Amino acid sequence: MKGFVIAGTGTGVGKTTVTAALLAALRARGLAVQPFKCGPDYIDPAHHTALAGRPSYNLDTWMMPAETNLRIFHEAMRTADVAVVEGVMGLFDGVNGTSDEGSTAQVAKLIGLPVVLVVDASSVARSVAAVVMGFRDFDPQLRIAGVILNGAAGPLHVNLLRMSIAPVAVPVLGWFPKLPELRLRERHLGLVTAGEETWNSEQVHQLVTTAETDIEIDRLLTSCEILAAEVQEPGVPESFREQAPVLIGVAKDRAFSFYYESSLDALRTTGAELVEVSPLGDTCLPPSLDGLYLGGGYPEIYAEELSRNRSFLASLREFVGSGHPVYAECGGLMYLAEELKTLDGCTHSMASVLPLSIEMLDHLDGFGYTEVKLLDDCLVGSRGTRLRGHSFHYSHVTRAGEVSRRYQTSRSLGNSEEREGFSVGNVLASYIHLSFAANPEAAEQFVQQCRQSKAVAQ
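^ thats the sequence. predicted structure below, dont judge the formating
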């Protein structure tokens, strides 16, 4: 089994493009390539999945304990030949400026993977050696397998850079030319989602050709062997396994697609069968559902379409009125509100499940890892339970009517605290994206609430 981490010297140096090229090239060779993403991102993994043909999993050493990361990694690798892990931000960037907690480097050391360092070579010459030397020496426990020079001007520039790096004794594994036609569009939360746009067949062919031509893939593979490991199944109570499964709808379409694959796995492990529903395209919820999970996404981009789908909104309100559990995160919270005001000044009616008004902003309103303390018993746990998640949004609540707030949140950046977790009846919605893999008790509680709802309905 082989594996490596693709890390960058910082954000925006081309990690995602290089990752895409190597995923496509390795798959084209007939290898079962398993993608992963460091950190809490949910957009890049969907593009990985499209390229690799296998679900991409997040590895996150702040949100999840070490043993959970190891279990996710080795379970996914049981049927794979090679792991490709895309890093987050710069190699050593994490929760704070004094440790490697939550960083790509910490993930690499935990899993035992060598690092392929992507360097922005577009406007540098001999100085590249100082950059590579600094990254090589900063953490002696980390192994740099080699460097990929992204954005180099051509073979002459690459040769100059190779000569500069040679005394540093870090292999140059290749380079990636400037190919603007391979860039995916971006918006306020990152890349456009894979459900909207990803690399087409011609672009994938170009990615493969470029990787095979300009990157020493064979040399990379010979230097990145890793050991398989025995992993334990997550500890789910036997009583859960013996009970009939419950049917939970998961909103999946162009407006809603932000989910951690390991969170969905945690729900399945606890006894849920997941059914995809589309607030954009479906006329109503399936009548057999026992619960609903509305994840994040871009409801603001599709606000008019969501508002026009009145039959689905009516179905959702009827579902809520019948007492079925509904759990929502970020975009899901916005959808459950009474209205959403977009940046063009238009106000669109939403589901009116929660007495909230939401307004889009032109800047980040909430960002960073977040710890949640439950102030009351709710859909994801009992009072006093502490959960971990992540927040990243460009909107805020401008008006809140009669609604309970079940969360006391504490952000890792700035140590700010607030009351959150909006709840009415059997509905819970928040800007926080929880990791059910990190918080299996939350998955168990939600599924159990759905099971109880099913029993009442019968």
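The chain has two domains: 2-222, 239-457.
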